[in-house]
Amino acid sequence: MKDTSFVNIQTLSTDFVLDLKYATTDNFLHQKVYDCPECFLRISTAKALVKANQELIKKGFRIKLYDCYRPLDVQKKMWKILPGTNYVANPKKGSKHNRGAAVDLTLVDLFGNELDMGTKFDFFGPEAHHTYTKHSKEVLQNRKLLKETLAKYNFKSIYNEWWHYEFRPERYSTVSNFKWKCE
Ligand SMILES: [Zn+2]
Fold first, then answer.
1. How many Cβ atoms are within 10 Å of 115's Cβ, its own excluded?
2. Which tens digit of pLDDT belongs to each residue from 31-45?
């Protein structure tokens, strides 16, 4: 039977860099919508991500997490600010983030510096698309490294956000709205 429970990824591994943007005002909402920066995911999504990170660490990189599970109420807030675009999922259906099976992330080097991915996180425009090829070689290589490594562990990209990946084997019909506890 599939384990459908959620887990705080840091209980599985402390090798991730956490930069939960929605726990700060540095995001497109310009609002702090999480009380504290924690990364919760469905357990199988989290385990696969740990494996991907282990492979990246061997190559001298590390995953930095921008967003993980996202309560449905936060999704509603985002939809209010950015409705009817391809960038925020309609809360009526909900996002994979609301199901704990999507992550927003980037790569950092051994010193914690973010690799150049061509745009910032949550840049809503063509430069953030995977199909945009006018970036430097370095940017394209960085994106490729991220995409190819994650693909090995069943994470699928979407066309318009280089930072967004969904764990493919997980198909949860229900969205969640729990809030994690903060100290
Ligand atoms: Zn996302």
1. 17
2. 999 999 999 999 999
